[in-house]
Each structure stands twice: as structure tokens, then as C-alpha cells.
Amino acid sequence: MLKQSHAISEELIEWRRDFHMHPETGFDVYRTAGIVADEMEKMGYRVQRGVGKTGVVAEIGEGGPVVAIRADMDALPLVELNQTDYVSKESGKMHACGHDAHTAMALGAAMLLTKEKLKGRVRFLFQPCEEAADKEGLSGAMRMVEDHAMDGVDFVIAQHVDPDTPVGAIRISEGASGGGVDSWFGTIFGKGGHAAYPYNTIDPFYLTAHVIFAINGLISRRIHPFDPAVVSIGSIQGGFTENVIPDSVRITGTLRFTTKAVQNQLHAEIRRAFEIVKPLGGNYDLKLEIGCQPVVNHVGVTNQIRAVGADILGKDNVLQMENSLGAEDFGTFTDLAPGAMFFIGARIEDGLERPFHSPRFDIDERALPYGTAMLAETALRFLNSHS
Asked: CA 203 to CA 167: how far, in whole Å?
């Protein structure tokens, strides 16, 4: 499979660079989805367009089992600072998380699987809006599930490029491999007035300071030390000039978790932190917005990916993934079927840092055949072993 993947490396690079030069954000992935759907139809897949608003579902084979391969398509609202032949041509948009490569490698895996006699079905889920959500707080994965993209799926896999791991290696671990994420939006109400007479006001900045202290002490004093969790403040807005105390301050943030119990506890503790303002004469409004669930790598699926990695890349190149509470809406899929996500090494060996969501993010395109082979071979083995 790796040999076949190297044989189509020019196509993989061409796809990836085309997507990179024409990034699309959120659910507005019309061009990308159109190219994907057209290519999959040319390969002989049964294609559904407009799934989850702008996603593409493509399937090949008959009967069961059903293995799903997910690839996200959306970019980020960033101005790219790289100087390459394939730099973004869309002002203020950039593939700064590797979704262009994910889409290209999934297309490559789809091409390779057309040459196989499948003992079941492979379903490709080309997903919009992994990086954001719509006005109702739903991401692309959630919208695709609403449109029945996961119906009948027995196993689901995905990969993500890793700019810190060398080409030819993968990282994977069983259990929680990413955090669930919710957002919170609070407004703290006081009583405004002239800044020269603070004793005639109920200063919302003073109230907010107490809330900040309570939130920042939440993890160390309220959550069990062996339960991974994060609560972060992302923005504070209040006031409009230097000599007026405003009536209110708006404060927003995010929380991360790996279990439902910790998620519920975090919600309760954030509410408790805001309650502090009431004895001080203030009041508040708080909205908690449910986001993505944690990505939980199923042990059996993880072991299968490890076995494929050992055969394709060599046992020494199958590495343990470092724990992180970074969020990924792939957990929406692993909630419905056993699944796992692995990270494919794509580091450019020039000593420069290219972190995710950076305007200088980029990958070594020699990684593309490795990811393509991993997806295709893993899907094939699941069909052969569970038919």
C-alpha cells in the first residue's frame, strides 16, 4: 500500500496545493467540496453532496461491515506569512491546521481502495467547519451526524498532520486523546457612575476581579488532581473611557475536560464563581454553550492502527501521543462508533517552528503518501478482519 501511495504522490501534492491556495472557512467550503465530490464520482464512489450543510459523503463496496474515514476541509481566518509557490490566494484565509493535507490524503486513500476487492463498505466523510460552529453552536461533525452520515458505521478513523513529528512516524494512544470543549459567556452587572466618586457606584471591574480569582483557582482547588481539566478566560470587555465606571463587564472563556462528570462539575463551579458578585451588590448573566465531546480512542481500533503503522512504517516509528486537551470535533463521531485518530509526522526539517494555527504553519509534503497508505490499509484490514 505504501508503494502504491508513493506512486500517486504527484496527485497528492497537486490536490493539497490546490486546496492550500484556495482555502475556505467554516461551512463555506463550496469549491473544496465540489472538487472532492467530482473526484470521488470519477473514482466510482456513490456520492452525497450537501451533507451537514456543505459536507460530502462518498461510499464504495456492498454490505457490511462499514468503516468510515473522516477528513476535515475547512481553513482558518489567518493571513499566511509563508513564501511558497502554493501560498494562499484568499486574503485573510489560510490552511493553518493541515486540513488541506487531510483532504488530499483521503482522496488518495479513496483512489487506492478502488483497486481492492472490499469485504464490506468504506465511507468517506469529508467534513466542513471543524474549526468553528454555526449560529446554533453546532460544528460540521454535528451537522453531518444530523444528516445521518454515521448511520450504520461500525468503525471510524481519522488522522491529523503533526508539524512536530518527523515524516515516516505516527503518534497514537488509547483513551482520551483530546479534550471536550465548551464555551462560557458572562456579563457582570454593577452600577456605573463617575470614576471620581466610586463610592456611589457598584464597580463591575471590582466584581469581575473576584470572579477571575475564583475561576483561576477552580482547577487547583475544586477539581480532583488526577482529572484533566482546563478553564481559561479568553476576553474581558467593559467601559468606554477613562473616567467613567461602566454598568457592566463582559467576560468569556473556554473549558476543557475528558469525562462527562468533570464537564458537569466545571459548569457548576463556574456558576459558583459568578455567584460571588451577589453578596457584593452585583448581579450576573451566564450562558454555557455545549461544544464538542472528547476524542476517545477505542483500544481495539487503536491497536489495529498501531499494527498497520508497525507494518508500513516500522515498529520504532509508531510513537505514543502526548496528552493534550486540544479540542477536535472528531469526538462527535467516536461517540457513535468505536474509532481513533492518529497523528502523522509532517515536520519540515529546517529548525523553524510551525505550530498549529500559526500564519507560518506548513508541512513536509513527503508525509502525504504515508498518511494515504495508513488510511487505506487500516480500512482494508478492518473490513477483512470483521467481515
From this structure: 55
